[in-house]
Write a sequence for this structure.
């Protein structure tokens, strides 16, 4: 049951090493055209196989990368491929699985061996439920959600070069634009103040930011505030298609609590819900419930917290 | 050139109730996933810019599809190609991908297959990638913008930390993010006209070579247990006291 790991991101590859350990396997890692990643991973104790400085390999070409990973898995005798369930990894997962004749699970948040099977947990029904599933086929592709496992820290790794027959790339990269730097990672924050559609206008954001600052929190939001109203960047979205957050404290303001949102915050230690609707869904999953207008409540909190 | 938009019929997630941690589907209406509607809108906009001839909605599911598809035809789809089978609702990605790929092969002159980046319910994101592999087409996931130039697509792929603009030859599979557009809301006239738009409905067993082997076993599918305190506080002062006593602020 050898395992091969591939991620375009070194930090996620380190998490996958820990994930492999959780299923009792020491994994080999494939690194494509990234000396820095190879070094970081070897330093952490990984057995790294790298395809080096090959301009013919285009990370943006999912079909080509799937062919490369399949070939590498074949050469290294791996039946199980662990990928990161970031966007690149998730896109790759389905194509690689189809190529390998493998069953595939994505967005996997935990894995454990049970009765000789790798039982995986993932959100289902838009986050309303958590499904426990396993893959029936010998060949398996599992994409693990970021931050589900701690980064691996070992020592005594090594780097070897791997020669593969590569198919030609069919996707041409014309331009890469780094996103405007939102340096805040809400998934890593200890405390969050999250706003939803109850917020009247963009002009009310400063008082939300003020509250966040006073309690040492970051500002997050529900999806419509970023994608429809564009008041906050997409990186601040909590939920199924946003970020899964596990803060110590989450203060949720004017959020009704659709499952696609709550799935991203239900593992918070303490949840506060402030909402005008006393029957809002969100109240069912809150520790403290205040039925009030969020604008008034935030103003008062800011005053009280000095 | 025609654009095919693959859409998934799912239960309306807002209406699913949880009883004893089990989801209850009784009387829950069927609809299409929200990101699927962004994929449809992207296809309709290509047609409106005279870059595509027809927008064809492709879906596989129970026979309720004939009704569910009306909302997509009202929102700009020209025709529907439906593959109907009793066990197709909620069938796993590997099977749906084969069925939809077989459907694409039966449609003339397909230049582009569009999907949402993930379905509304399972959000596994496998189907588009699996179809691309079956058809041997290039793919671009997470598109935030699509331009067509001759037989090429110029696509902006939105990643977590960057956007990359890539060029692929058609035919290709593209999945879109919800930020790509705002799906139109059809007018009453459009809804009335939708019922008259052409629909081709075939039975799943008319398709050859579908391997229906289950690749995944589901052990359980339960709502997570929640043991929240659910303390109702009267005012902000009481809330602040409570949070202070828990050393949260």
């Amino acid at each position: 049951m050898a395992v091969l790991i591939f991620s375009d991101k070194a930090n996620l590859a380190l998490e996958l090493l820990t994930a492999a350990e959780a299923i009792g396997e020491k994994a080999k890692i494939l690194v494509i055209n990234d000396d820095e990643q190879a070094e970081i991973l070897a330093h952490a104790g990984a057995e790294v196989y790298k395809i080096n400085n090959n301009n013919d390999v285009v990370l943006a070409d999912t079909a080509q990368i799937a062919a490369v990973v399949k070939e590498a898995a074949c050469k290294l005798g791996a039946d199980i491929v662990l990928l990161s369930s970031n966007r690149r990894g998730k896109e790759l997962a389905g194509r690689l699985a189809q190529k390998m004749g493998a069953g595939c699970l994505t967005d996997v948040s935990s894995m454990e061996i049970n009765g000789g099977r790798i039982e995986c947990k993932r959100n289902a029904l838009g986050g309303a439920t958590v499904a426990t599933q396993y893959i029936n086929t010998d060949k398996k592709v599992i994409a693990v959600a970021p931050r589900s496992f701690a980064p691996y820290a070992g020592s005594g790794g090594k780097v070897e070069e791997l020669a593969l027959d590569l198919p030609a790339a069919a996707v041409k990269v014309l331009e890469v634009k780094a996103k405007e730097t939102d340096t805040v990672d809400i998934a890593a924050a200890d405390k969050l103040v999250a706003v939803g559609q109850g917020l009247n206008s963009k002009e009310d954001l400063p008082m939300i930011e003020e509250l966040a600052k006073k309690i040492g929190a970051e500002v997050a939001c529900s999806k419509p505030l970023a994608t429809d109203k564009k008041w906050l960047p997409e990186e601040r979205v909590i939920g199924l298609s946003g970020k899964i957050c596990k803060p110590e404290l989450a203060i949720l303001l004017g959020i009704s609590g659709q499952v696609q949102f709550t799935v991203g915050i239900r593992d918070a230690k303490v949840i506060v819900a402030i909402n005008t609707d006393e029957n809002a869904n969100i109240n069912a999953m809150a520790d403290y419930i205040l039925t009030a207008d969020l604008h008034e409540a935030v103003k008062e909190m800011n005053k009280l917290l000095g | 050139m025609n654009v095919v938009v693959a859409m998934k019929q799912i239960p309306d997630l807002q209406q699913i109730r949880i009883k004893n941690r089990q989801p209850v589907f009784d009387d829950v209406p069927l609809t299409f996933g929200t990101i699927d509607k962004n994929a449809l809108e992207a296809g309709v906009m290509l047609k409106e810019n005279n870059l595509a001839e027809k927008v064809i909605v492709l879906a596989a599911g129970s026979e309720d599809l004939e009704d569910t598809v009306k909302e997509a035809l009202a929102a700009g789809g020209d025709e529907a190609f439906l593959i109907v089978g009793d066990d197709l609702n909620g069938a796993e990605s590997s099977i749906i991908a084969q069925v939809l790929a077989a459907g694409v092969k039966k449609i003339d002159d397909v230049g582009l297959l569009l999907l949402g980046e993930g379905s509304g319910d399972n959000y596994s994101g496998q189907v588009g990638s699996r179809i691309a592999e079956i058809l041997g087409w290039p793919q671009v996931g997470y598109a935030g913008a699509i331009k067509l130039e001759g037989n090429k697509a110029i696509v902006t792929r939105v990643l977590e930390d960057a956007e990359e603009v890539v060029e692929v030859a058609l035919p290709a599979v593209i999945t879109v993010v919800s930020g790509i557009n705002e799906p139109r809301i059809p007018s009453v006239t459009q809804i009335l006209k939708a019922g008259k738009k052409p629909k081709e409905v075939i039975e799943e067993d008319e398709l050859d070579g579908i391997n229906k082997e289950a690749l995944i076993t589901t052990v359980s599918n339960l709502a997570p247990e929640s043991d929240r305190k659910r303390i109702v506080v009267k005012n902000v002062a009481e809330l602040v006291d409570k949070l202070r006593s828990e050393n949260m602020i």
Residues 102 and 207 of chain B are 7 Å apart (CA to CA). Residues 2-217 of chain B form a domain with the Rossmann fold fold (CATH 3.40.50.620).
